[in-house]
Amino acid sequence: MLVVAAHPDDAEIGLGGTIALLTASGLKVGIVDLTDGEPTPHGDPATRREEAQRAAKLLGACDRMILGFPNRYLQDTVEARIALAEVYRTRRPRAVFALLGQDQHPDHLAAAAIARHARFYAKLSKTDMAGEPYYPPLLLQYATSHLRRVLLPTAIVDISGTFELKLRAVLCYETQFGWRRDLLLDRLTTTAKFYGAKIGVAYGEPIFSPEELPIWDPVGLLPR
Ligand SMILES: [Zn+2]
């Protein structure tokens, strides 16, 4: 599995509980950040990278790469699509988790488009791109949205068992949240409880599918 983010911390905030569940089950999950997330008021590139690696390790991710496109000014360019398509072609993930294209942050909107378009580019033949043609069979989306509205997911993952780990991973980003820790914890907890309540569990994480969601294992749909 490959999680594509605009900034280091997007993956943890939107999908941290699910990533921890996937890695705990033995699946390999990689994270790709399209930018290094800097500059920010209290961060610097080296510290942000160190925080990102620490958070990824905590969630059990097998690796994390930062592609180095410009933070704040991320654009859905051919160059960005090709760079990410090469990651798809060489890593060949069974599923890609991309940012949801409903957002107020321009970088998040660009990242959503890049992740989607890179999927199409990745299958092209007769190109100079690294790796062999490959089309990731499943594209799902997660929300780290600045949009002030309730987002209606396709499905909700029960992250009751990994919610604490998710919070710890997010708090690795001291440069981003150390000075507003209580506010962040309150927001993440409220959101996770809201989505959890919709499926009758303590904490939930919303997942979105831009295409019809295939069900390969109907037995796995049954409540535990
Ligand atoms: Zn972000």
**Helix fraction by DSSP (H/I, runs of at least 4):** 40-55%
Strand segment tally: 7
Q: Considering the protein shown, what is the CATH homologous superfamily? A: LmbE-like
Mean pLDDT: 96
Structure class = alpha/beta
Task: Based on the coordinates given, report the CATH architecture.
Answer: 3-Layer(aba) Sandwich
> Which blocks of ≥5 consecutive residues have pLDDT under 50?
none
**Helix count?**
7
Q: Please summarize the sheet with the most strands.
A: 7 strands, mixed
Bound molecules: zinc ion
Can you tell me the overall shape?
globular
- State the domain count: 1
Rg for CA atoms: 17 Å
Secondary structure layout plus pairing:
Blueprint: E1 2-5, H1 10-24, E2 30-33, H2 45-59, E3 63-66, H3 78-91, E4 95-99, H4 106-122, E5 138-142, E6 155-158, H5 163-170, H6 174-177, H7 181-198, E7 204-208
Parallel strand pairs: 1-2, 1-4, 2-3, 4-5
Antiparallel strand pairs: 5-7, 6-7
Helix pairs in contact: 1-2, 1-5, 2-5, 3-4
The structure holds zinc ion.
Structural summary, described in words:
The chain is globular, with a radius of gyration of 17 Å. Helix 1 packs parallel to helix 2. It has a single domain (2-211), classed as Rossmann fold. The protein has seven helices and seven strands, in the order βαβαβαβαββαααβ. It has 224 residues and is of the alpha/beta class. The longest helix has 18 residues, at 181-198. The mean pLDDT is 96. It has a seven-stranded mixed β-sheet, with helices on both faces. Zinc ion is lined by residues 6-7, 10, 105, 108, 144.
